[in-house]
UniProtKB/TrEMBL annotation:
Keywords: Transferase. Residues 1-82 form the GST N-terminal domain. Signal peptide: none annotated. This is Thiol:disulfide oxidoreductase. Belongs to the GST superfamily. One of its GO terms (molecular function) is transferase activity. Pfam families: GST_C, GST_N. InterPro entries: Glutathione-S-Trfase_C-like, Glutathione-S-Trfase_C_sf, Glutathione_S-Trfase, Glutathione_S-Trfase_N, GST_C, Thioredoxin-like_sf. Residues 85-216 form the GST C-terminal domain. The keyword Transferase applies.
Amino acid sequence: MIDLYTAPTPNGWKVSVMLEETGLPYEVHPVDLMKGQQKTPEFLALNPNGRIPVIVDREADLTIFESGAILIYLAEKSGRFMPSDTKQRMAVLQWLMFQMGGLGPMMGQANVFYRYMPEKIETAIQRYQAETARLFGVLDGQLAQNEFLAGDYSIADIANWCWARTAFWSGVDREPFPHLNRWIAQIEDRPAAQAGVKVPVDISELLGGSEAKNKAETFVRGARTIVTTGKDD
């Protein structure tokens, strides 16, 4: 059994989608970021960096933090979504690192300045939205020539998809990227992806409708306390 400590964010979804895809048994432990549970001594004993997600593999007596490291571990444990051939494996890992070092941080900062910060600093908003759009263009170019990012469906697709699908929240238009949109829709059709992004709770209702708008505004107010106090995931 794997214990998953997580919250409804793209980094958290990366692991829950992977667990759903592999069928590995897991137990969810929600972490309330707005209450600062990721900064408690109990959580810091699992991840001294105070970020979600974290897994504890009871059978292996192993605790792992950092979503990319977790994806690699789960791929190796399950024997799925990571090729054994060195060339293909490196292709997967480079697109995983693309997300870890580029897409995730840029979209995260776009979220902070576009959604959460009470003071709207236009130069910062434009900077991070433009860089996100540039990275979308890189993905779009790769997906114009390939069904998935690195051969077959892999942890690279899971990691990038969990972020790219949230472009609306970053204020970035996905319309100019047809191949990216095809790929996002294709993965959205996977039952494991649908289930994984509802862990630990389903927040998809934040993305549309008048009632959802009110809920989104409430969510933003709560999230604002996280980013202004340094308690983000």
